[in-house]
Specification:
The protein has 198 residues and is α/β, with parallel strands linked by helices. The protein is built from ten helices and eight strands. An eight-stranded parallel β-barrel has the order 1-2-3-4-5-6-7-8, surrounded by six helices. It is globular and about 40 Å long.
Amino acid sequence: MKLDRFYPIFDGVEWLERMLPLGVTLVQLRVKDIPEPELRSVVARAQALCRSQGAVLVVNDHWRIAIEEGCDWVHLGQEDLDTADLPAIRRACLKLGISTHDHAELDRALSLSPDYVALGPVHPTILKKMKWAQQGLERVTEWKRLVGDLPLVAIGGMTPERATQAFEAGADIVSAVTDITLNDDSEGRLREWIEATR
């Protein structure tokens, strides 16, 4: 299955309701700090919405709920890998994306046979405090050489203009969060992203 080159990340179903009709076909749901019953409802709604729109949903972190709700993809950060039941994820036929920031993390990720690897932050990001400095485009090129045919996702400080540079450096997919969600015209900005990545 070939993934779309544009991979926005949203923190609620309301964003999916707004953005999927504009042409998003690959999306991550990253929901933090809500009670499990509510979280389960959010994931179920997101999955139903993505299926109805023909989009691929990737659930961030919450692998148990992703399995129970019949989702197809889960994304895990390095800390999540410490506690995730990877055999259970594989038994459920969930596809797996993994975040990486340095060589040790990449080695760990590749040992788990992921379905994509993410590298970030490529550029400075305001999304969350990170202990890693920006990776830069040279690291994107290096990572692509190391992962080979595995899809490489570039994330962190991305804009439609920077997406072109990331693709040229070797990224297969570019991910964005705040460039869309904090934009005064989020729908307009998303359309710019689609134009730049299709």
